[in-house]
Amino acid sequence: MAFSSAEWADPGIEFVQPDGPEPSRATGLAEMATAWRKRLNAFAGVRVEAEEYRELDDSRVFVLVRSRGVAQTSGIDLGQVAGGRTALLASLRDGKVTRLVLYFDRDRALADLGLEG
Hints:
Layout: E1 9-17, E2 24-27, H1 29-41, E3 43-57, E4 60-71, E5 85-93, E6 96-103, H2 106-113
Parallel strand pairs: 1-6
Antiparallel strand pairs: 1-2, 3-4, 4-5, 5-6
């Protein structure tokens, strides 16, 4: 999934950030772009790398992620917050992501989904 285009996303996508500094929810491509841009702009030098993909069922994929970057206002390094270990959950239908949940805290994601690390 590349964030330089939105061809992977359903036009009515639900974008959820349930935790982190500013939990939020957005619906549709424009709102998702605004929310994602806000999150990215809060950090400098952002790098996101998938560590592991887990197919949960026919319509959901869970991705364990390592995030790097430095908070613009506080200077906190994401690598120092839970080791930069984040996660995302993508729900798919007809080859498009219909719901994308970005977790700042991987342990919360695992707990919400009843999974083990």
